[in-house]
Amino acid sequence: MPFKSAVSVVILSFFQHQKSSPKEEDDDSPTMLLWMTIFYFPLIADAFTTLLEKKRHIGGGTHKCYSCMSRYYGATWQFAGYSRIYQEPRSFTDNCRNPRNAEIPFVHCEEETSCVTMIEELKIGTGARGYIRGCYSSILLFGFNRTGSVYALGAHTFCHTFNLTQLVSGGRPEESSVHVCSCRGPLCNDSEISTTSSPSLWMAVLLPLLSFFL
């Protein structure tokens, strides 16, 4: 039952009691209201819980980030061990490289977290790259390492190149170079990022220091 309906039942029942009771019994009204509240409390609590779940389902208090990985990850998901490192995205598609020109699905992320784009240098040929987009809070199965510039990705906007073993806090990944960009705002992780030109190093070093002193 909807929350408003549950409250309405309590109020209506109280006034019906008031209407049917003699005037001289008005002194019992607070007691009757108390008993009715106790009686209907489970109904109200259940309706209130349903309301909260509904708000969470439609993205209340969240923002959107694109969620995808290059098709290569999907084709080797179990064989290459990616299922032990990443959470499965909404889509495996080569359009993950540039979601602006494609219908890439999104996910709802925690309001205070960043959207992330990761570009991995794949060891399957010269210049082969894999693209990964998602929420900072959920893109990795065990989460990002919670130290230094890796941790700063969750709250600041900047780009930096890491080794995959630096990024993850579990899963035993192999050595691999990954260029990571974080951003703040709905669907902000839609850019086709260059891995050769970004003022990332100083940002990656200074932001954690500033966070420590402020």
From TrEMBL:
Cited InterPro entries: Ly-6-related
GO cellular component: axon; neuronal cell body
Matching Pfam families: Ly-6_related
GO biological process, one term: olfactory behavior
Protein name: Uncharacterized protein
Organism: Caenorhabditis auriculariae
